[in-house]
Amino acid sequence: MDGQEATHSQVTLHVNGERHALDLDHRTTLLDALRERLGLTGAKKGCDHGQCGACTVLVDGRRLNSCLLLAVAQDGAQVTTVEGLAGEDGRLHPLQEAFVARDALQCGFCTPGQLCSAVGMLAELAAEGAEATREAVAERLSGNLCRCGAYPRIVDAVRDVIT
C-alpha cells in the first residue's frame, strides 16, 4: 500500500441535490471540502471549533457544524448548504425571504449558518410537535452566534415563517 492510499479515500457527497465524487485526505473536514473542493463558500469558517455555528449545514436533514465533521465520514450523505435552500426556480426559501423582510442580518457572516440551523430547527419542532414560542426558537438557535446582535430580528424572521 503506498502512502496516497493510506491517507486518502474516495467519497461521494450529495450536495444540494448534486452528486460529487471526491478524492479526499482523511483529515479534510466537510467544511473544507465544501469550500475548497466544491466552491460552496456560504458556510463560513468562523471559530473552526464548533462553537459559533457559522459553518452549520444540513446533513441528512440534521443541522450540524461542518467544521467538526470529517468529510470521509459523510460518504453517501445528503448535504444541504445555504446555496441549496433556494428553490430550483431560483425563488428564495421562505426563511431567506423572512430574513430579508425583517432585516435579520447586519454583516451577514453568520447568516448562512443561521439559515441552515433555522431550517433544521423548524423540522425538529415539526417532528416533535413542539410549540415554536419565542423562547423555544431563541434557545434552539443559541448555538449560532451573531457578532452584530441581530438575534431579536432572527427570531422574528423564523417565527414569521412558522405563523
Automatic annotation (TrEMBL):
Domain 2Fe-2S ferredoxin-type positions: 9-85
PROSITE patterns: 2FE2S_FER_1 (PS00197), 2FE2S_FER_2 (PS51085)
Domain of life: Bacteria
Keywords: Iron, Metal-binding, Oxidoreductase
Keyword Iron: yes
Name listed for the protein in its UniProt record: (2Fe-2S)-binding protein
Phylogenetic lineage: Bacteria, Bacillati, Actinomycetota, Actinomycetes, Kitasatosporales
